[in-house]
Amino acid sequence: MSDAAEAVERAIASRRAVRAFLPDPVEPKLVRRILAVAAQAPSGTNMQPWKVRVIGPDSRARLEAALLAALDSPDLPAAEEYRYYPESFREPYLSRRRKVGWDLYGLLGVKKGDVAGMRRQTAANLRFFDAPVALMVTIDRDLEIGSWLDLGMFVQNILIAAQGHGLNSCPQAIFARFHPVVRRELAIPENEVVVCGIAIGKVDPDAPANALVPEREPVEAFTTWLA
Fold first, then answer.
1. CB proximity list for 57: less than 8 A, separation 6 or greater
2. What is the DSSP letter of 170?
3. Other CB atoms within 10 A of residue 12 CB
4. Where are the alpha helices (DSSP H) in 15-86?
5. Residues of the domain holding 90
6. Predicted confidence (pLDDT) per residue in 89-145, tens digit
7. In this structure, is residue 24 part of a structural domain?
8. Is 47 inside any structural domain?
9. Which CDD domains does the annotation name (predicted)?
10. How many structural domains is the chain composed of?
11. What CATH number should be reported for the domain holding residue 74?
12. Side-chain-facing half-sphere of 21: CA atoms under 13 Å
């Protein structure tokens, strides 16, 4: 295997969702480089449908304060910006979802019915897990599924490019649930969908949540080989 292939595989295989970061700053120049590399993602007819907001300290302080206030507010709309998960889960997806949830909350010492513990973890999520870099990703509302596929490849490129530079990351769908707050605080127009946030920084190796390594299915479980 060539050095280049090994580096790519290592970046992909070592990537995982980090849920606690060290405060070490990341240079804006490096963030810009990561985004430039990520923008090499393929897109149908070169549409490049992705939009990113790099959230600076002042905007982030306002956003996080508003999000944490909304967390306890009965006025937060129940509807998400878009449907990420199915209305009801079936196998094998239900078991996979339950296991990763139980594994994470087990590491955090949050037992079933521990409302305060679950709220604490949700609040950490809304703070971008205290990562030094916070991004918000959007897409134009009138675009179709193909452009969402393109956007997914762009987001993956961000995560892998960050990993290649010795940084860790966490893609965060939770912000779609709080889209009215995100939209207001970041001045996102109605014609854009709040898709996800991305936290980037250096992993806190001592944080219990970062011991989570979700299982992956073997190739045989999802691949059909045709003659």
1. none
2. E
3. 13
4. 28-38, 57-71
5. 17-211
6. 999 999 999 999 999 999 999 999 999 999 999 999 999 999 999 999 999 999 999
7. yes
8. yes
9. PnbA_NfnB-like
10. 1
11. 3.40.109.10
12. 27
